[in-house]
Design goal:
Elements (H helix, E strand, L loop, with lengths): L1 H15 L9 H16 L12 E4 L2 E13 L2 E8 L9 E5 L11 H7 L4 E7 L14 H15 L3 E6 L3 H13 L8 E5 L11 H9 L1 H7 L2 E2 L10 E3 L1 H11 L1 H17 L2 H14 L5 E2 H13 L2 H4 L3 E2 L2 E2 L9 E7 L12 H5 L8 E6 L11 H17 L2 H19 L10 H9 L27 H10 L4 H5 L3 H11 L4 H4 L2 H11 L2
Parallel strand pairs: 4-5, 4-6, 6-7, 7-13, 13-14
Antiparallel strand pairs: 1-2, 2-3, 3-5, 8-9, 9-10, 11-12
Helix pairs in contact: 1-2, 2-9, 3-14, 4-5, 9-10
Length: about 525
């Protein structure tokens, strides 16, 4: 297609040249638009950039620097380093991006939503056609080893988030670590729209794998990298085949989008045309997968259902999810997900039989498809705050605090109780006068227009509603909280130390200064 694409691009430039009289006619605009559609649909797109130069932390805009802190032949680990004025005890979050055709930049929105409250790392998988044969193979077992190695690199109290395809290898990696009593097993794992058990609510993706069998995939979708790519002669599953499969599932939607793009170009509607370009520049950028990884994943996950059946192996080690006892589990699904059916991710709860019930949480987001599980407005407003809340709740610091509190309660219960002294009139007077410390700060209704408390990092819609119901509507109320009031509010609303941990007072003070 390269010669045709070059000819189409040259024709487009000719009919867009302002010195060409045809460029100002309806026919000229239609020819230029058709050529651009042709050129863009046959172009090989390069890897996009994350392009996240700043983030908002505690009400302050800070710079963000991407750094590769760990690397192997098939993956780099990128750290989004925030230029903070003073250190924060934000959780370390490892986002494991899918290795299923698209680049890790598809999770740009996921990273952006997590950065204000977390120290974020992401797996940046490398295009298999760019890895020389000398680097060796890369299969599902290697993927699991990479995940374990990255968790070891990040150290204790790491929180892992797996988006779609990585849910299976991440769950397997945690099971292997727990089987080995690995002290670096993550504090939490969040599995989002992942195919843990594809026997539940099978989709077109699952039906294809079951109907064809592994030999069909080996014969029909595996190709050899051509010269002059660095990975020449490596067997791969080409990214353009995966992309074709994705697009065929919603072909009418993509055809309508390109028809509308053509019409926007003809009409000169630059804004809508640019929105189309931005989306498809990302969506059409794909990478190749190694043949051994692709085939092993198809066979293990979609044909044999090895993980839910308890037959999955990591090398010589059985993957036993019942060994997971210390890593809290959050699963997230989309109500309208047509790639990973409802219930497929939730199946992880049934596999982790020895994980305490209070360490398991499942959430289904209404009215979103597969992409909306990890990106978009509903993800930012509904899912990301729940993820952060879950991570903070089950961080090692919070677990230790809860253990100390439980030990103190237990010790107090076991201690002998002295007979209560009969209160005197002098003693009862101060007790009667001791009022609720929050009475001085709470309001029956907002004074004027209520402030947007969600602007405070750590406060989502649910917490804002709880604060409003308690009588807190304005930034100045939070900024002026005293230590007794913080303690009372923490007890009343079960904030578990969030006010102090997330520095709400300082955030509220800064925000109140910007409100006229």
């Amino acid at each position: 297609m390269a010669p045709m694409r070059a000819a189409a691009d040259a024709t487009r430039l000719y009919f867009q040249n302002p010195f060409n009289p045809m460029a100002h006619t309806q026919m000229g605009r239609q020819i230029a638009a058709a050529c651009e559609v042709m050129e863009r649909t046959t172009r090989r797109y390069g890897k996009p950039e994350f392009d996240l130069p700043t983030t908002l932390v505690g009400g302050t805009r800070v710079a963000v620097t991407e750094r590769v802190v760990w690397n192997r032949p098939f993956c780099n680990l990128i750290h989004f380093e925030r230029a903070l004025e003073r250190p924060r005890r934000d959780p370390k979050v490892l986002i494991v991006a899918p290795m299923s055709g698209h680049y890790a930049t598809l999770l740009r929105g996921t990273v952006e939503a997590m950065m204000p409250r977390a120290d974020v790392y992401i797996t940046d998988w490398i295009d298999a056609r760019m890895v020389p044969m000398a680097a060796g193979k890369f299969d599902l077992d290697d993927y699991i080893d990479y995940v374990i190695s990255m968790i070891h690199f990040l150290g204790p109290d790491t929180h892992v988030v797996a988006v779609c395809q990585p849910s299976v290898p991440v769950l397997a990696a945690v099971a292997v670590m727990e089987t080995r009593n690995d002290p670096y097993a993550p504090s939490t794992m969040t599995l989002m729209g992942g195919p843990i058990d594809t026997r539940v609510a099978p989709t077109a993706v699952n039906d294809l794998a079951m109907s064809k069998g592994i030999d069909w995939f080996r014969r029909n979708v595996i190709m050899t990298v051509p010269f002059p790519h660095p990975g020449v002669m490596r067997e791969v599953y080409p990214g353009f085949l995966q992309l074709s499969g994705f697009m065929s599932m919603n072909l009418d939607r993509h055809l309508i989008a390109h028809r509308d793009f053509f019409q926007h170009l003809v009409k000169g509607d630059g804004d809508n045309a640019e929105k189309h370009r931005e989306f498809y520049d990302e969506y059409l950028a794909v990478m190749d997968l190694t043949a051994e990884f692709y085939l092993q994943t198809v066979e293990t996950v979609f044909i044999e259902h090895a993980l839910p059946r308890g037959t999955m192996m990591h090398g010589d080690t059985p993957v036993d999810c019942s060994a997971i006892r210390n890593t809290a589990l959050l699963t997230v699904e989309g109500e309208k997900d047509d790639i990973t059916g409802r219930g497929q991710t939730r199946a992880a709860h049934d596999l982790c039989t020895n994980l305490p019930q209070d360490m398991k949480v499942h959430y289904e987001q209404p009215n979103v498809g597969h992409y909306g599980v990890f990106n978009g407005s509903r993800f930012r407003a509904e899912i990301a705050p729940r993820m952060i809340d879950f991570i903070l709740t089950h961080s090692q610091d919070n677990r230790a605090r809860q253990a100390r509190a439980a030990a103190a309660v237990s010790a107090g219960t076991a201690a002998p109780k002295a007979a209560p002294a009969k209160p005197t009139a002098a003693a009862s007077a101060p007790a009667a006068a001791k009022a609720d410390p929050l009475e001085k700060i709470l309001l029956a209704k907002p004074q004027g227009v209520a402030d947007d408390l969600k602007a405070i990092a750590g406060v989502g819609p649910k917490l804002e509603k709880a604060l409003n119901e308690a009588g807190i509507f304005h930034y100045w109320q939070i900024a002026n909280l005293t230590a007794p009031q913080i303690e009372a509010l923490d007890t009343r609303l079960d904030f578990r130390g969030r006010i102090s941990r997330d520095n709400w007072l300082e955030q509220a003070r800064r925000l109140s200064e910007t409100v006229s």
